[in-house]
Request: fold
Amino acid sequence: MSRTLHTFKGGVHPPGHKTESNSRPVHAALLPNKLVIPMRQHMGNPAKPTVKVGDRVLKGQLIGEADGYISAAVHASSSGIVTAIDLQQVPHVSGLPDLCITIETDGRDEWIDHGALDYQAMALSDLRMKLRDMGIAGLGGAVFPSAVKLDPGAHAIPTLIINGGECEPWITCDDVLMRTHAEEIMQGVAVMRHLLGSTEIIVGIEENKPEAIAAMKTAATRLDFTVEVVAVPAIYPGGGAKQMIETLTGKQVPSGKLSTDIGIQVFNVGTAHALARAVHHGEPLISRLVTVTGHVLRPQNIVALIGTPIHALIEIAGDRDGATGVLMGGPMMGVPMPGQDVPVIKATNCLLVKSKDLFPPLPRALPCIRCTRCADACPAELQPQELFRFAKANEFGRAQEYHLFDCIECGCCSYVCPSHIPLVDFYRYAKSEIWAREKDKRASDLARERHEFRQFRLEREKKEKAEKLAAKAQAKRAEITADPTASGAPDADAKKALIAAALARAQAKKADIIPRNTDHLAPDTRHVIEEIEARRAKIRELAHQPLETDEKKP
Amino acid sequence: MLTAIGVMVILAVVIGLVLGWSAIRLKVEGNPLAEKIDAILPQTQCGQCGFPGCRPYAEAIARGEADINQCPPGGEEGMKKLAELLGVDPKPLDETHGTPKPKSVAFIDEQTCIGCTLCIQACPVDAISGAAKQMHTIIAAECTGCELCLPPCPVDCISMVPIPEDLPHWKWKHPVVMLKQSP
Reply:
């Protein structure tokens, strides 16, 4: 049973640097004194805090609930006291703070009650909601809430691909996970199969991970359904979801569509493992495997609790002098971290410590000579040199016409560019500008709608008021006309009668508002009132007199 | 000869009827150019252009009675889009109508607010909630930052707060590429 493999266009062969970190045993989780757990760790809406400062929380306790459909819950990674719910620096390239829950751990690492789910007996939608509330999100890098991806909706998903490609240099966390936890990954795959109803399940692993392939093949034989473990050629970015689909099935995901539109869903092996822990042990996603490598003494994989500061992991791996920064992710797609105090989040697959020797600073860029080497390397079959030109000139419309949004930001173009232009930075810039403009457009459409409704409302209120007045006048006129004394009178008389009636009404109203609280008063109170009235009359009289006395004063 | 004239006349009548019918039947409601201009304008409804709202300004531009550089919230970019749509040369923003400012939303100091409802009446997008002698508050998500609520407030309790850059609003910056100096 061998599968015909296909090749995708482009790609590069950067040095792998995998053996540095995958030869050491996995380091068990360490328990830091303080955990900083961001509420925005996944795509979609950030979680909403459900605890208060001062609360004691247990390991695995929900501290942030999912807000909406595309969202995921966040849990305490260890037991302790919530000491702050505020803005803290998060592992984001901008260095901007975001809402985090800080937990002072008590060292007891006390679990909340948890146990396996009877997932076979649960309704599929309940199971999905449960997974969302256990914070399961894609651990391959995009951190998309898995519950959403596990909902086939109107599509049939006959093919389920488990992505063990891990094509990016330096990173080995998926490799090590497959070697050590192949059984659990397969249990997770069984849950995915249950939710999606897929009939064809393929695990794609790059051929530079023979131990992982062997372990996964062994685990696959023990299953009661067929899982095909396929070794794919090692070429960057062969582990990208769209590239893995093309390699394994020969199908291309059309531009602007999702893989589910062609009946394929892709999950990372780490996600399958997290899913198995959630379903078979009731453990929410509170830890993950992180590769710490690069300019450290002992590159290795470490189980890290979500919220652990990254410097703690780098210390375990042995920090060295001469580090020039830390990347979250690999050298191709990783983003620089604003500092070493930021916490590990669900997306942290690798911490790559840079040094001048390993990552010499890029030489200064030269102008683009339109050699189109980037176009040859682009796995998305785009024209990077054109996208660069438009992004640089802020011609975002043109960039979109050249399918900017099919760019997966893999960095192949920047890698091959002989002019050393940071091409991906330009695409990221153009994408975020386009998103900002779309947001502005939605805001201005809302403003237009609200302004138009306001105009309509003002007009309507004016009309209603006029109608009400007209109706009242009409009623009065009818009353007068019906009055036998005025019957037969000409129009002018009717008008006069109307005015007279209105005057009479006004008089009556005036008479009505004479204060009535003076009727039944005690004689002395009445006397006081009279005195006051007299004083008032006098003052009024004085006020009417010319101010001769004042003028005569010297 | 006569036949030829007859054919031409019949053709003319038939085509005329078709044209006349389609002119009535396929008539475009409103001014399509004004619609397009209105879609470019930022919809702050601030009136800085000298017209009571974005729509009237769009109509004035469409009629050729207003220039394209009178909208400070739209900024340089909005002016350029208008120039492109109308096929005219871009020109610098007219400073007499104000200068572009960073995006802001109004904020009511609820300690000072006396509940007079004057700002509610001034707000062009109904983004202020409150009632007479009750505290008022801005619905920040719907505020366009037009500043029209500032002048009517008798106790000056409204201030404009620039929208801070936070993670959801963060954008990648235009990369600064150091070019190699030629020797």
Notes: Chain A touches chain B at residues 40, 90, 92, 94, 96-98, 363-367, 394, 421-422, 425-426, 428-429, 431-433, 436, 440, 443-448, 450-454 (CB under 8 Å). Residues 550-554 of chain A have pLDDT under 50 and may be disordered.
